[in-house]
């Protein structure tokens, strides 16, 4: 991420905004690109005055909303065969296991999977194409997509912008010991959040393994064109 930030800092602000929108937009279409790394790096550059935070956030939100909408259209037209081809092309990111987890999230949470998926690396890539392939109603998809994109883009940008500004102040007015303690606290909280996310992911995957074992090791397939989203979870 430091290399990305250093590379971006050598570019004009307008080009940085275009890169943020472009990388996040292509990632949202279903291509695994480091969209979050680009956003984080640009937000930290905003804290140093290289770029403006509102333009970084706006570019990220634009890329997320438009990219997800394009991904939705592609998924609706290409369906599950398209997702299978993406899985073969990017097996580490979009393989059968990742696709099954994403489908499980849609089945459990309905259109809210699009909103919360913006904050999860896997669903951030798959939400648009998968929602289109599963024929999620576009109006509901667009509402969740726009809300998730705006909250994610502006929340992430201004959070990191504020942290960067505070860190710059600390470097001037607080001892190195205080800075080290703050860094250790941040690393500890990040470790705890990752551990909790892993536990939640493990808990979500347990019912699938049990169901597969009960069915002789064959997980249930989603019929092409069918909408596995329960009616009660569409809202």
From TrEMBL:
InterPro entries: DedA_domain, VTT_dom. Residues 203-235 are annotated as: Disordered. Residues 212-235 have a biased composition (Low complexity). Belongs to the DedA family. Residues 41-161 form the VTT domain. The chain crosses the membrane at residues 7-26, 111-134, 141-162, 174-193. Keywords: Cell membrane, Membrane, Transmembrane, Transmembrane helix. GO terms for cellular component: plasma membrane. This is Membrane protein DedA with SNARE-associated domain. It is a multi-pass membrane protein. It is found in: Cell membrane. The keyword Membrane applies.
